[in-house]
Amino acid sequence: MAQKTLKVTLVKSASGRLKSHQACVRGLGIRRTNHCVEVIDTPENRGMINKVSYMLKVEEA
C-alpha cells in the first residue's frame, strides 16, 4: 500500500516569525518562500502543518 502524501508550499516568509514556527517550517523540509515539498501524511507532520497553516498552502498529492 502506497503511503498518502501531502504537497506543502510556503506562501509567506518564515523570517520574523516565532522560533517554534520557523522550526516547524524547517522540520517539514521547506527552505524558502514558494518552495514545495511532499511529506508523508502522519500525525506529526499534520501537527506541524496545523501550527503554521497561515503560511502554507497544502494539497493532497
Give the gist of this structure.
This protein has helices spanning 19-27, 43-51, and strands spanning 5-10, 36-40, 56-60.
Describe the 3D structure.
The structure is a single chain. The protein has 61 residues and is α+β, with helices and mostly antiparallel strands. It has one domain: Ribosomal protein L30/L7 (Ribosomal Protein L30, Chain: A), CATH 3.30.1390.20. The protein is 30% helix and 26% strand. It is built from 2 helices and 3 strands; from the N terminus they run βαβαβ. It has a 3-stranded antiparallel beta sheet, with no helix packed on it. The protein is globular, with a radius of gyration of 11 Å. The protein starts with a strand and ends with a strand.
Unreliable spans: none
Helical content class: 25-40%
Tell me the radius of gyration.
11 Å
- What is the CATH class designation? Alpha Beta
Number of strands: 3
Q: How is the main sheet built?
A: 3 strands, antiparallel
Which structural class do you get from the secondary structure elements?
alpha+beta
- Sketch the topology as an H/E string, one letter per element: EHEHE
- Average pLDDT score: 96
The CATH architecture can be given as 2-Layer Sandwich
User: Hey, roughly how much beta strand do the residues contain?
Assistant: 25-35%
Strand order of the largest sheet: 2-1-3
The shape is: globular
Examine the coordinates and then state which fold CATH places here, giving the name of the CATH topology: Ribosomal Protein L30, Chain: A
Q: Kindly, what is the distance between the CA atoms of the first and last residues, rounded to a whole number of angstroms?
A: 15 Å
How large is the count of helical segments? 2
- Fourth-tier CATH superfamily name: Ribosomal protein L30/L7
Q: How many domains, in number, for the residues?
A: 1
